[in-house]
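Budget justification aside, the reviewers requested a transparent look at the raw inputs and outputs of the sequence design task funded under Objective 1. We therefore reproduce one unedited record. The lines immediately below are the structure tokens for a 263-residue chain.
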């Protein structure tokens, strides 16, 4: 992939749309002041990709932070997601999220979880929404290889993204390889293991060599594997720290050592 030089580096999706490789996740950040504050910090730090969901209950707060930022709408990528209880009326769920976000259009709309027996019907509705022009790209989340292949098989418009739990300590390699083969962006949530492995000795040793933090090494590892990352933090210094991953490159030897952590 070569060295990535700036925070605005994007990946081109299979429909030609460009999505920033670094995003900011807002899962489990309470709606209201806390979401507004943290998203505002992220936008000030240079993030231009915010990942929310109906289930997080903070779409309205994300909207307020975006509006307060003064940054042009077309400079910010916004993802939200369809919750399975809304499969009964997918168009209504989308319109509700769009109204709460109040941003004219949504950049990426994901099916939050697969429910067996609904894959084809749900994807058909996602394609209908895509054709309205109110969303730039559609995709899925938490889809295993079988769910993803079933979606690909029935799709007229293939999914652009599959968002999965993924970190240097573990990820679904079958799904990752299928995504690479099918030109579907593989996007990682919890890339920092929700803080559980930030003191890992192997990663710490590599981090010292690059004068970086373990979090920065974990995020950079993902970028070099062509994985989009959406770290989450409610601490301003860490939000800023997580952007400092574009001015160095992990060597092939160290990448192999990091790969062994999920072997």
């Amino acid at each position: 992939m070569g060295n990535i030089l700036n925070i605005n580096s994007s990946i081109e999706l299979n429909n030609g749309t460009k999505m920033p490789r670094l995003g900011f996740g807002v899962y489990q950040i309470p709606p209201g002041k806390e979401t507004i504050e943290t998203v505002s910090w992220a936008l000030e730090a240079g993030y231009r990709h915010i990942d929310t969901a109906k289930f997080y209950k903070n779409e309205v707060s994300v909207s307020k932070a975006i509006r307060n930022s003064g940054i042009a709408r077309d400079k910010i990528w916004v993802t939200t997601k369809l919750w399975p209880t809304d499969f009964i009326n997918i168009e209504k769920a989308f319109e509700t999220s769009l109204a709460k976000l109040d941003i004219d259009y949504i950049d990426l709309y994901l099916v939050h979880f697969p429910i067996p027996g609904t894959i084809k019907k749900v994807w058909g509705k996602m394609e209908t929404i895509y054709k309205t022009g109110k969303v730039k790209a559609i995709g899925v989340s938490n889809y295993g290889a079988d769910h993803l292949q079933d979606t690909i098989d029935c799709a007229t418009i293939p999914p652009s993204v599959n968002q999965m739990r993924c970190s240097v300590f573990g990820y679904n390699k079958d799904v990752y390889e299928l995504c690479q083969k099918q030109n579907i962006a593989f996007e990682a949530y919890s890339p920092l293991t929700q803080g559980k492995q930030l003191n890992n000795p192997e990663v710490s040793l590599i981090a010292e060599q690059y004068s970086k933090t373990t979090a920065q090494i974990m995020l950079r590892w993902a970028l070099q594997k062509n994985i989009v990352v959406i770290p989450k933090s409610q601490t301003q210094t860490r939000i800023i720290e997580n952007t400092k991953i574009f001015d160095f490159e992990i060597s092939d030897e160290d990448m192999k050592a990091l790969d062994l952590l999920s072997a």
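The mean pLDDT is 96. DSSP finds ten helices and ten strands in the chain. Computational costs for records of this kind are itemized in the attached budget.
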